Amino acid sequence: MHIAVLGTSAVGRAVASRTAELGHTVLMGTRDPSATAARDEFAAWHRDNEAVQLATFAQAASGADLVINATGGDASLAALRAAGELAGQVILDISNPLDHAAGFPPTLFVANTDSLGEQIQLAFPAAHVVKALNTMNNAIMVRPRELADGDHTVFVCGNSAEAKALVTGLLQEFGHRDVFDLGDITAARGTEMYIALWLRIAIARGKSDFNIKVVR
Amino acid sequence: MHIAVLGTSAVGRAVASRTAELGHTVLMGTRDPSATAARDEFAAWHRDNEAVQLATFAQAASGADLVINATGGDASLAALRAAGELAGQVILDISNPLDHAAGFPPTLFVANTDSLGEQIQLAFPAAHVVKALNTMNNAIMVRPRELADGDHTVFVCGNSAEAKALVTGLLQEFGHRDVFDLGDITAARGTEMYIALWLRIAIARGKSDFNIKVVR
Predict the structure, then answer these.
(1) What is the model's pTM?
(2) Chain B residue with Cα closest to A109
(3) What is the mean pLDDT of each run of 10 residues along chain A (216 residues)?
(4) For residues A31 and B87, what is the distance between their CA atoms, to the nearest angstrom?
(5) Domains, chain B, ordered by start
(6) Which of A25, A94, B22, B42 is most buried, judging by how many CB atoms fall within 10 Å of its CB?
(7) Residue in chain B lying closest to A190 (CA)
(8) A157 touches chain B (CB under 8 A)
């Protein structure tokens, strides 16, 4: 596939690195490619991941089979708008609506009666938004078999069965064994609100090296 | 122990039945004992659970080693106030702040920057509130070994280590093998907000016969 990864932070780098390793063509979108390339941390990562091309949000998304939103929740709508109309394209939305303004642990800037996944679908009505992977750290997202041989759960939700099938295929390529379909995009309220519990588990453990399994 | 179970709905009945079976002395608190006793569904259950005594909220809580709040979230503060000041007593709070007014699935009437567990602790400053068991259905709460031999997680949080130890002991008597301490009572935000995900999983499955395991 031609994959656009929007966002160059740790989540974006993990997803770009893994999808390139799996043989996909990966363009990484950022607001200002030359500024991103000049950053030491990114440059060090990029030397080890030369197959990933750096581009603007719009260049990355143009013609992509899959647009992965790996930007921070508070930057997601702006980044996606910069990427274009995304008509007919599949958006895999990994973001969480974290509000860091009020201290730690962060709260959510949208919850309960709405979600960031729904806001993105509303802003891009001709795109097919699939929420997934936002319930675990980036290492487990892309290499799930390294935790309990993958015996844990990743959720997908979205309004398009076809788009969910495409995302599910990529998750299985990553190594996910239990891809749980929660239904339409309103279920993003569930996976985003779970972050409040994820944060407390991570704080109690002092690390984020865990995921949940739906035992049934 | 002398245990007060506040609330006579399915959750209260499951907890009362199981704690009595385990040999504890159980008083079940309700607003109007004679009205509750006259209800067919309750009466049928009570015939099979004669060891459980029906009482007012205040009678049930008086002198109890453990007060279990098994009332609905929107009725919890009123029920607990009717039970007394509860000074020095341990409250195991199972409730969820479900708001059924706006349809299905319910939203939460408090979330994100506060929780029902915290509101109860604030209203009863001399009591020791422990939030637990609110993340699974009542059958799994009290007989966890019947699901995957108990290979799943129950969370506790609260400000008193001693109160959490008392509740943890009861959870282990129920059969819980993985009691996860999330920290102080503010972590109730995490377990209560998880209900948004729990509801979506239950809807997708068409049943509530599951629990999550923290895989680490």
Answers:
(1) 0.98
(2) B112
(3) 98 98 98 97 97 98 98 98 98 98 94 98 98 98 98 99 98 98 98 98 98 98
(4) 57
(5) 2-205 (3.40.50.720)
(6) A94
(7) B197
(8) yes
